[in-house]
Design a protein that fits this description.
Elements lengths: L1 H24 L2 H31 L12 H36 L3 E5 L5 E4 L1 H7 L3 H4 L11 H9 L6 E4 L7 E8 L5 E7 L1 H37 L9 H29 L8 E2 L1 H20 L4 E6 L3 E4 L2 H17 L11 E9 L2 E8 L6 H4 L11 H7 L5 H11 L3 E7 L3 E7 L5 E3 L2
Parallel strand pairs: 7-9
Antiparallel strand pairs: 1-2, 1-5, 3-4, 4-5, 6-8, 8-13, 9-10, 10-12, 11-12
Length: 442
């Protein structure tokens, strides 16, 4: 740019010197004519190169860019360097896009980018095959016009994508897809579809196996438990030296029957792919019943009761399956009782049950003053048979399946289990329901 300015200044200065010289050797009129002629030539030169620039811009090509003269030479050189840089960047961008397309094509999952109004902006070939899309004809169309599944539509507009959504293909009844949505910038979303057909078949086989084995074991265990109970009640049937062994056998038989019942319950819940009952539940009555059951469990376990408090919003009800949600609430309260020792100083342990609106969502919570849970265990608590302390779980009579049952029931109700705990201080288990399931009585 400085070179161009110097050339322009030199040209004007030379023009002025020539004009001054002519004026000195001739009349003022002649000098003016010469100056005007020089200025016209100067303007004509610029008009010529502007025309060359306009012509080149219509069909830009590095090979045909004009050479220029004077200050235009510097300008065209700058433009040439800019175009070369732009060409290089464009080549690099095209290469990156090609690598990206190759990478996404190699992925077994389907990818779809949705715009701010959930319209399809881009998708991979796998997404087209799995979801029945065609980018050429479906681009900019709302995805709900093409995937007409009520569960998927609810999942899309609920805007809570912590868990994937299981979608059964309408084009191929045997195809099962896991749909995961990820929020992006500018209200865009990334939809990931994964073919889970084979895993689903294996999972069905596993559930059927567990259910069948549990059914087969329940009958002989019932018979064995019945004979043990009968022998224990018969006077003189069991020698005093063996009564302790018989009591242990009876205790373990009861424990095995509890595990089998929980396995059957979990298998039934997992196999039930339909929507849960959506009737309105009288929460005040249900939670009062849960509290009474908890008091009875506390007295049976400890021979001295915990202090079990209930703080419930009597004007707030819930829509869902009463039997399933009662199982959730009872499981969480019974766990709190089993793992909350009686404080010798107080003569009781504290269990607080709350039911209220929190951040415009219905929330059920159980807070205890128990032994607490170390942070590394919290993420795995809902796994089948996962135990923080195996010996402690056997002492309290737990089966290791209660929280797994809770998790699957809550998934069916679009709810979330939140666990906070401090080791040695206590724990709080909160069930957060979607706003749509709350019913505020007037």
């Amino acid at each position: 740019m400085q070179n161009i300015r110097r050339k322009a200044g030199s040209f004007i200065f030379a023009l002025l010197l020539i004009s001054l010289f002519v004026w000195l050797i001739s009349s003022a009129t002649t000098a003016l004519l010469v100056f005007s002629g020089g200025l016209l030539l100067y303007l004509a030169n610029h008009i010529f190169w502007l025309n060359q620039l306009q012509t080149w811009f219509k069909k830009p090509d590095l090979k045909t860019i004009p050479d220029g003269y004077g200050l235009w030479e510097g300008l065209f050189n700058l433009l040439l360097r800019y175009e070369r840089t732009n060409k290089y960047n464009q080549t690099q961008l095209n290469a990156s896009l090609e690598r990206f397309n190759l990478a996404t094509s190699a992925m077994p999952d389907g990818l779809v980018i949705l715009g701010s109004s959930n319209e399809i902006e881009w998708c991979t070939a796998n997404a087209e095959q799995q979801l029945g899309l065609d980018l050429k004809t479906d681009k900019n169309l709302p995805v709900v016009n093409l995937i007409r599944d009520s569960g998927f539509i609810a999942y899309l507009y609920n805007e809570k994508y912590d868990e994937p959504f299981k979608l059964k293909s309408w084009r191929n009844p045997e195809l099962v897809l896991d749909i995961q949505l990820i929020a992006m910038a500018n209200n865009q979303k990334l939809l990931i579809s994964r073919d889970m057909t084979q895993l689903e078949k294996v999972d069905v086989m596993r559930r059927d196996f567990i259910a069948n084995v549990s059914h087969e074991l329940r009958t002989p265990l019932t018979v064995v438990g019945g004979f043990l109970e009968t022998l224990g009640d018969m006077e003189g049937a069991v020698p005093p030296s063996l009564q302790g062994y018989f009591a242990m056998m009876e205790e373990q038989t009861v424990r095995m029957r509890r595990i089998i019942e929980d396995l059957l319950t979990l298998s039934t819940i997992e196999s039930n792919t339909g929507s849960p009952d959506n009737s309105e539940i009288d929460m005040a009555s249900l939670l009062k019943s849960v509290q009474n059951d908890a008091i009875g469990l506390s007295q049976g376990l400890n021979k001295s009761s915990h202090r079990i408090l209930l703080e419930a919003d009597a004007t707030l009800n819930l829509k869902g399956s009463m039997d399933e949600l009662r199982s959730v609430f009872s499981n969480l309260v019974s766990n709190a009782i089993r793992y909350t020792p009686v404080d010798p100083a107080k003569g009781h342990g504290d269990i607080t049950i709350t039911w209220q609106m929190r951040n415009k969502q219905p929330v059920f919570a159980v807070r205890d003053t128990g032994i607490g849970i170390e942070s590394q265990h919290i993420e795995r608590l809902t796994e089948r048979f996962y135990r923080v302390d195996k010996s402690r779980s056997r002492e309290t009579g737990g089966t290791g399946l209660g929280l797994s049952i809770v998790k699957h029931i809550l998934i069916r109700h679009q709810a979330k289990l939140d666990i906070s705990s401090e080791f040695g201080v206590g724990s709080t288990f909160s069930v957060i329901f979607p706003k749509s399931r709350g019913v505020q009585k007037t």
